[in-house]
Amino acid sequence: MYDRIKGFRDFYPGEMAARRATINGLEETARQYGFREIATPAVERAAMWTDKSGDEIVDELYAFEDQGGRHVTLTPELTPTVARMVVAKQQALSKPIKWFSTRPFWRYEQVQQGRQREFYQTNVDIFGSSEPEADAEILAWAADALTGLGLTGEHFEFRISHRDILGGVLETFDADVDTEAAIRAVDKSDKIERVEYHDLLVAAGLSADQAAQFDDLVAAGDLEAIVDFAETETVTDAVENLQNVLAAAEDFGAREYCTISLETARGLDYYTGVVFECFDSTGEVSRSVFGGGRYDDLIESFGGQPTPAVGVAPGHATLPLLMQRAGVWPDEEVSTDYYVLQIGDTRPTAARITRDLRERGNVVETDVSGRSFGAQLNYADSINAETTVIVGEQDLENDEVTLKDMVSGDQIQVPVEAFPGDHDRPTLEDFDA
Amino acid sequence: MYDRIKGFRDFYPGEMAARRATINGLEETARQYGFREIATPAVERAAMWTDKSGDEIVDELYAFEDQGGRHVTLTPELTPTVARMVVAKQQALSKPIKWFSTRPFWRYEQVQQGRQREFYQTNVDIFGSSEPEADAEILAWAADALTGLGLTGEHFEFRISHRDILGGVLETFDADVDTEAAIRAVDKSDKIERVEYHDLLVAAGLSADQAAQFDDLVAAGDLEAIVDFAETETVTDAVENLQNVLAAAEDFGAREYCTISLETARGLDYYTGVVFECFDSTGEVSRSVFGGGRYDDLIESFGGQPTPAVGVAPGHATLPLLMQRAGVWPDEEVSTDYYVLQIGDTRPTAARITRDLRERGNVVETDVSGRSFGAQLNYADSINAETTVIVGEQDLENDEVTLKDMVSGDQIQVPVEAFPGDHDRPTLEDFDA
């Protein structure tokens, strides 16, 4: 009768189990790194984006006026919200501030594979350190999180650069260049034709020759050649910072996943230093799986004290595609340890066994529908029960219940008073005399 | 610079740790019951509420028109969404369908203690069983979930009734009664003056005498007296169903938390059978902590096959108040197993130790800010590190690191190659020769 809105997803239990395992994996690694969970509003002042963001994001806002006349929007990303939170408690928070959270965001985009209008991200950020170790810790978390999900260096790579390398090289041209426009062009360069790319660079202020020269320099990716070409402190410092981040990433175990790639520029305007994107190294590499980088100016632009920041945000629409191509996406199935089957008026005993098994931490279901033996056994199958405990009136007359292994089909009778006994997760073997 | 919107909360790490422990507790119990996690859209067609819901909920919608001209709303509750999901896959889903999820909802309400405009709920529902065992399983889950959080029967009670008892009694009066209006009056009766309550009953169609008689019957709560008064099948069946639910709740271990209370009617119009509300039995009982009940007609009204349903939704704004009054709210603090402190150029060794400790499942931080010994030690204190591993240049010359117990202040030197060695969570005692 009512349809789901385009670009929004329902997640049923099987798919959700796989997603939850993935989210838990990322979050568990974040906890081990000492990132602390936060939770944030779904709705903020629209001005947090309309004042500063690029047109791309503003055009995609789910913005509206609330009943109090506020101009508000569903949040399209986390970063401005955490910036607001850091500013609000700047004095009280000990630095570095290391936060993570997993939640949905909303953008009115063209819907396609791996891109919905409601999309989930796990955001991981460090505020308060400008040192290369902070960038490297973000890279190391991302690498550990992905390898924790079963991915390896054969499946993914981090393409890494520094925004000031491109910006610094652009400054050296004898031209009035719109640096942000040129960097946006670089960011798009692997998705568009060469001619179109050069046209964008020319539109940003370069001559045709300069555009070609710039393209060649960037594509070659030779850091020394770039330092020599630019001969500016900006470029020299940026290259040194990138190399320091990579050296720290070596100590932190993440260097092997990193490839220097100067085309990596990130579309968002607030990045200021090292930027990186995770790409699928097995399949088509036309789109990044997720990205991150340093954004040292954002907190100050939100009215806070200057506070360096670096972060990353794996998205739960594209990450499953990477995991599926690598063959490490979890089975989309529910699992159940025990089904306690009732035949006749055996509810008190079945309920007692059900409660005992649950108290020991098991996933246990029992009949709540008054159904037949066959219907219950079909249901136990449908929820992938490992073991069915059959509590029948006749067995109970002999003070017994029947354990049925749902894979092998083997059955065994067990004294009801001894079940589950001392066993936290009893199997047929535990009672096989 | 930008303010948070009224009625929306930021959750910083300390408070979030307590909330996460609470949510994990509810969800872990739900998993043990065989409830399966789902995830659902934040935005739905506004018509899902404007077509059917009471004015109260419609007036509070965060509704707007999206860029595609759709009339949409932030979802104020989960139930219509899961009804839509059940209808969409009715044939494929094996019954009973047992789902849970924790997420925010949004209502433009008056903000007060325990009531925000963005509020989180853990919804737990069973679809496809009309048997009293399903109602009882919902009650048992709620009881186990709350006791799992450290609450006891001294802290909470479930006030339970059946909508048809009130409806059935109202039908027996020789009057043209608006049953839903009268039930809404009952639902408000403990929050308003007696006179106002009787006025609402009269406005719903009862005479003044009938209103007084109805009030007396309901307040006494004597099920047999009500059956005798009504002498109708509706009331007799409703009382019998309520008693059957309580008998099943006895087997499932939840009966002791249940009190029959016919005033409990739940404000929402879609309830059809047993309804219950959780109240704080220690403090002021003016408002319920959360509620639930049976809503057998909703799926059909959404275009599905007739599908009985029962559910409950503890809210994470009121539950903390109950837990705080009972003294079982978790400490609002972050915890850290190890801080690995670097003095001088010891990053490679510190990073190796950090990684080893994290791989063993510990929460470990190390310096990413290039700070002094004192600043690092203060930071380790601020994150409640249990143990600090001091990796100093001088110690390393002797192939040693220093373990410092952050509570006792005790220190001990340990061979760097032996740390953490075979220990998953090494303490000073493990190395005390």
Short description:
2 copies of one chain form a homodimer. Chain A has helices at residues 13-32, 47-50, 55-59, 79-88, 132-148, 163-172, 179-188, 194-203, 208-220, 223-230, 233-251, 298-301, 319-326, 347-359, 373-382, 393-397; strands spanning 36-37, 43-45, 62-65, 71-74, 97-106, 118-127, 156-162, 258-260, 274-280, 290-294, 309-312, 336-343, 364-366, 385-392, 400-405, 411-415. The first copy, chain A, is of the alpha+beta class.
CATH superfamily of the largest domain in chain A: Bira Bifunctional Protein, Domain 2
Structural shape of chain A: elongated
Terminal CA distance of chain A: 57 Å
Discrete helix count of chain A: 16
Q: Quick one: which chains have the greatest interface?
A: A-B, 94 and 94 residues
Low-confidence stretches of chain A: none
Which quaternary structure do these chains form? homodimer
Look up the CATH topology of the largest domain in chain A. BirA Bifunctional Protein, domain 2
| Mean pLDDT across residues of chain A | 93
In total, how many beta strands of chain A? 16
> Which CATH class of the largest domain in chain A is shown?
Alpha Beta
Question: Measured on Cα atoms, how large is the radius of gyration of chain A?
Answer: 28 Å
What is the total domain count of chain A? 2
Enumerate the strands of the largest sheet of chain A in spatial order, edge to edge or round the barrel.
Answer: 1-5-6-11-10-9-7-8
Assign the structural class of chain A, choosing from mainly alpha, mainly beta, alpha/beta, alpha+beta, or little secondary structure.
alpha+beta
Q: Provide the β-strand percentage band of chain A.
A: 15-25%
Share of helical residues of chain A:
25-40%
